[in-house]
Amino acid sequence: MHDASRFILDQLPGCSPVDATPTEPSRYSPADEPPILVTPDLIEPPPFRAIQVADLKDVRGHSGFAAFLDGTQDLRVVNQIEGISIVWGVVSAAIRARVHRRLVCWAGRPPIVSGRYYMPFRYLPALRDEMRNDPRVVDTATEARDGTFPSRHPAALMEAAVKRIQSDRERIELELAESWCASQTSTLYVDGSITGSRIAASSIHAVGVSKTHRRLYAEGDAFRILAGLRAGERTTVFRVDPRDRHPVASWYVRLRNPAGRDALFGLVRVEAALTSDISSRADEVTRWVLAEGAPLALPDGRWDKMAYGVRDTEEFLRAIS
Q1: DSSP assignment of 231-265, as one string?
Q2: Residues 168-175, mean pLDDT to the nearest whole number
Q3: pTM check: above 0.85
Q4: Which residues pair with 271 in a beta bridge?
Q5: Which of 183, 188, 184 has its CA nearest to residue 95?
């Protein structure tokens, strides 16, 4: 962090250093999309229903996932000039493969760790050309599709920086996922969506598992079915086709007994390639996802939805980033 701050002080006259302590994730996170309910576009025969796949006691230890992919991000404000924050962001991603029941770094691609500066060129007229052309420096005030630019408001500029850091994190995660799909014949557990990559979204060797649910594919009666889903059950498979991304088959799975908990406790949404045998594929992958529920990913607060292999990958990345 001190090196990052000194670099900016040397390159951008008038900057002042900032105490580069780790930021609180919620403080600078951009506003999420509003929570919404969407009518699911069913692939399996209607109606949207709960399907019992397995008893939890029958699936423990019977997973077909050979490896886990996850990424992390860290951002710190290292300098400021005229109220504009200069951000140092580090993103990392790794695949941890299961070898003799132990998780180790996948030999096919080493972990990726990338540090870059994030700053709004538009509001920094003193920025030198060598910095503008430096691949380590990212412009966070680029023109949007509607021709507008981020406001000079400090919060708006910070949100723009966070979005770019998140985009960089997804980029390196999907880069690793594509390397796996191009070279392996076993299945990779991807923490999050795979719709950002055409290769991953269409490969039978990658499965995405999302733990967050700002957008729920469960409008109307479908929400009642989703809220009542019991441990070991999945929903009917539906199609997800986000704008500017790639289509996948998707379904919800309840990993743990929700009795006495909120509606989203132990609930994940699975993404897989669109295949002709999607019903049997959904049953198979659901069993694998359920099997990864043990051992518990404690003490992580997301233990009800997190696979232990994902927690292992996160801990590894924190150690090397």
Answers
A1: TTEEE--EEE--TTS--EEEEEEE-S--TTS-TTT
A2: 97
A3: yes
A4: 208, 250
A5: 188
- Amino acid type, 137: V
CA dihedral of 225, 231, 233, 235, whole degrees rounded to 10: 40
Phi/psi class of residue 196: alpha, beta or left (left: φ > 0; alpha: ψ in -120 to 50)?
alpha
Closest CA to 212 of 196, 189, 192, 229: 192
Give per-residue pLDDT as tens, 189-213. Answer: 999 999 999 999 999 999 999 999 9
- The span from the CA of 18 to the CA of 77, in Å, is 7
Which residues pair with residue 210 across a beta bridge?
269
Asked if 80 and 15 touch (Cβ cutoff 8 Å), the reply is yes
Pairing of strands 137-139, 112-119: parallel
- Tell me which residue of 168, 200, 157 sits closest to 181, measured CA to CA: 200
CB neighbour class for 134 (10 Å; exposed up to 12, middle 13-18, buried from 19): middle
Separation CA 228–CA 234 (nearest Å): 11
At 140 the three-state DSSP class reads coil
- Cα distances from 116 to residues 5, 119, 136, in angstroms, run 12, 10, 5
pLDDT at 26 over 50: no
When computed from its CA atoms, the radius of gyration of the chain, rounded to whole angstroms, is: 21
β-strand pairing of 84-99 with 102-105: antiparallel
